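Contributing new records

If you add data, match the layout below exactly. Sequence lines come first and carry their own label; structure lines follow with theirs. Keep one chain per record. Anything else will be rejected by the validation script.
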Amino acid sequence: EKRFERHLLSSTALQAAIDAMGLELFIPKPYRLNSVLAIKLPEGADSGEIRGYMTKNFNVEISGAYGLPVIRIGQMGEQCRSQNLFRVLYALGHGFKYYGFPLDISSGMAKLEESLENSSNVV
């Protein structure tokens, strides 16, 4: 049960942070999975370029999608640890920023911290 709670907390915290940063989640809230988040690509964004930048500069790998304009972040196992949540969010924000998509990375990081801090569970 603690593992399920950690996965739920990690996913909802990352969802809030992605929203605060200025990106939009692909699936409406009532239908989202805790195990993977799909993020809409803004018009003109190239999934491969952004993901490649994240891997090269931050050693963070996330997934693309087949046929949909989204990128995906897995939310299981070690990804549900706070240090990894911060790392992937920071890399994601800088990947988009590098390719000219202005996001509010600081707001996203602050929202992630706030969401995790408001929980009695440590992730």
